[in-house]
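Sequence, structure tokens reproduced for absentees:
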Amino acid sequence: MVFANATDMTTAFYDRIFELAPEFRPMFPEDISILKQDFISKLAVLVGSLDQATGLLSGADLLGRNHLRYGVKPEHYPVVGEALLWSLARGLGPHWTDELEQAWRKVYAIIAQRMIGAGASPPQSSIPDASRRM
């Protein structure tokens, strides 16, 4: 249901972020239409990976490293999480239940923590191989 209404949901999501934290706006391009498409496609991949923890976590790692390059800090994640939940609730209307909200909160917390952790550590490819030090 979310993806069927993706354009409205992503517009509501970004509008809500900028409403909650107007200081975030300079971190984004003026025209965010491509960013909206990218967001919904990445969300679809993450949701599609929920049954495969490895895919979900590696996707979150990559997003965390990318978001670090954009200037995203750990304190930004709660605002984005609230904007995501708000836009999902708005988009799903009567289909948004307390149970669904708690599930999304849990998933977002896992993904956000993983993204924060990945952004705080170097990518595995840049970690020197101990066997090469000798």
About this structure: Helices lie at 6-20, 33-48, 53-69, 77-92, 98-120. Residues 22 and 89 are 21 Å apart (CA to CA). The chain has five helices and no strands. The mean pLDDT is 84.
